[in-house]
Design goal:
Layout lengths: L9 H9 L5 H6 L2 H8 L3 H15 L7 H6 L8 E2 L4 H6 L4 E2 L3 E6 L5 H11 L12 E6 L6 H9 L1 H4 L5 H7 L5 E5 L3 H17 L3 E7 L1 H8 L5 H22 L3 E5 L1 E3 L15 E3 L2 H5 L4 E14 L2 E12 L7 E7 L2 E4 L9
Parallel strand pairs: 3-7, 3-10, 4-5, 4-6, 6-7
Antiparallel strand pairs: 1-2, 8-9, 10-11, 11-12, 12-13
Helix pairs in contact: 3-4, 7-8, 11-13
């Protein structure tokens, strides 16, 4: 190891050589007291050595919550628009480009609808909230909803009235949604490490959607296998974060929900909800942004259409307030429902 490549003073570098430490890994695996004993350095010098070693191992600079909020980090200056001004206002422009966003909710809440809508939105130019690229949609439980995707494509002019129709027709939206199926965690890991990485490296996609995460891990592992399950979850989240940071790509993980059994579970979801996102604390600690979508009992009407009212809530995010917006699923996609427009039955 050439210790001169680290940001160390000649005195500290010489002390490390005398201690016969041959790699950064050795430095990081030794306690502070042992480093002081081996090198003869003072406590501040040892701290400086550890900081330099940790910095050398870090692939990406750390991102603070303030940087995320103010968009000071290069990879996070842009957002991926949801395609709806009301929901974009809730998310301060849309999904962050760097990091993993989780969208959880019960069956029929509209999670897949929003995932498909983002697959359209990512293809628009940046001035229209997109990233000028395609999407990779990985299904783990149900077949891909091709007919609904085609309907959304046909209704884009109605959803995106801010975009010239001529631009929408030129985008050929159906040609840039890549679909994969993964029936178990190993297949998903291979898909992300190979197929997803290749598409990202070629610039063909700038959005990853996994629908859903819980389906694989609930079916594959029993309750007594929680330790192995958590290890696999950490491996998956690490892969997703590396892809997101390396290729400046938003990642959306759709998740299922579980019943709330005790009061502490409420912290994982909206306080008014009787369910919380699946996979527990091990997974909750791996996501950057947690959103939750709920289907309410009310019905909203608009013209010849009606839809069950939905609620999209921000459960936690380093740059967002804990807030929510009502929404509905129409032929053209998911739209926020301002209070003034609520014509309920």
């Amino acid at each position: 190891m050439n210790w001169d490549r680290l940001e160390l003073s000649p005195r500290i570098a010489a002390a490390v050589r005398r201690a016969k430490l041959t790699s950064i890994r050795e430095v990081l695996c030794v306690s502070r007291l042992d480093l002081q004993r081996l090198t003869g350095l003072s406590r501040p010098d040892v701290q400086h050595l550890l900081t330099a070693a940790a910095t050398a191992c870090r692939r990406h600079r750390p991102i603070t919550a303030l940087q995320l909020q103010e968009g000071q980090h290069g990879a996070l200056e842009s957002r991926l628009s949801v395609g709806c001004p009301v929901l974009d206002q809730l998310l301060r422009g849309g999904l962050p480009v760097g990091g993993v966003t989780e969208l959880s909710g019960e069956s029929g809440a509209g999670k897949t609808q929003l995932g498909l809508q983002l697959c359209m939105s990512v293809q628009y130019p940046e001035q229209h909230g997109g990233l000028s690229s395609g999407a990779l949609y990985i299904c783990t439980e149900d077949s891909f909803p091709v007919r609904r995707l085609q309907q959304l494509i046909g209704e884009q002019s109605a959803l995106r009235s801010d975009v010239p129709p001529s631009l929408i027709s030129r985008l050929r939206l159906g040609d840039h949604v890549y679909i994969e199926h993964a029936a178990d965690p190993d297949t998903l890991q291979v898909c992300l490490s190979r197929r997803a990485r290749l598409l990202l490296a070629q610039g063909r996609v700038r959005l990853l959607v996994v629908d859903s995460v819980a389906a694989l891990f609930r079916a594959e592992f029993q309750a007594e296998d929680w330790l192995e399950r958590n290890k696999r979850l950490l491996t998956l989240s690490s892969t997703l974060h590396h892809l997101s940071q390396e290729f400046s790509t938003p990642v959306l993980c759709i998740n299922q929900v579980t019943d709330v059994f005790n009061q502490s579970d409420v912290t994982f979801g909206p306080s008014s909800s009787s369910v919380s996102p699946a996979l527990g604390l091990a997974w909750a600690n791996q996501v950057t942004v947690r959103l939750m979508m709920r289907r309410l009992r009310e019905t909203v009407c608009r013209g010849d259409q009606s839809s069950a009212l939905r609620r999209l809530d921000v459960v936690f995010a380093p740059h967002l307030a804990r807030d929510g917006r009502d929404a509905a699923v129409w032929r053209e996609g998911v739209r926020g429902v301002p209070n003034s427009d609520r014509n309920t039955e």
